[in-house]
Specification:
91 residues, alpha+beta
């Protein structure tokens, strides 16, 4: 349903050799938030230190794929070797 838009966005980012930094709401059971995670990725699947240092893109990609988020924007970009990170903000 939304995959064409995500794919187009990923292609645009890659064609400009850009990187993605995305801020999304904290994880909860809200349907809108869960839909956001499927589209863009889920911040608490990232492999990094608690202070956001030492981001590990390949491990993050594996985490996303293992948990069913392999078609998310973040996963697509990481799979192509691009930098794509997310952070959360509290509600």
């Amino acid at each position: 349903m939304y995959y064409n838009e995500i794919s187009t966005t990923a292609n645009d980012i890659m064609s400009k050799d850009a990187m993605l930094y995305l801020v999304v709401p904290a994880n909860n059971a809200n349907t809108d938030t869960m839909f956001t995670f499927h589209q863009y990725g889920i911040p608490n699947r990232q492999s990094q230190n608690s202070d956001y240092s030492n981001f590990n893109g390949p491990q993050t990609l594996l985490n996303l794929e293992t948990d069913g988020y392999g078609q998310s924007l973040q996963a697509i970009l990481l799979d192509k070797g691009k930098l794509a990170r997310e952070s959360i903000y509290p509600k």
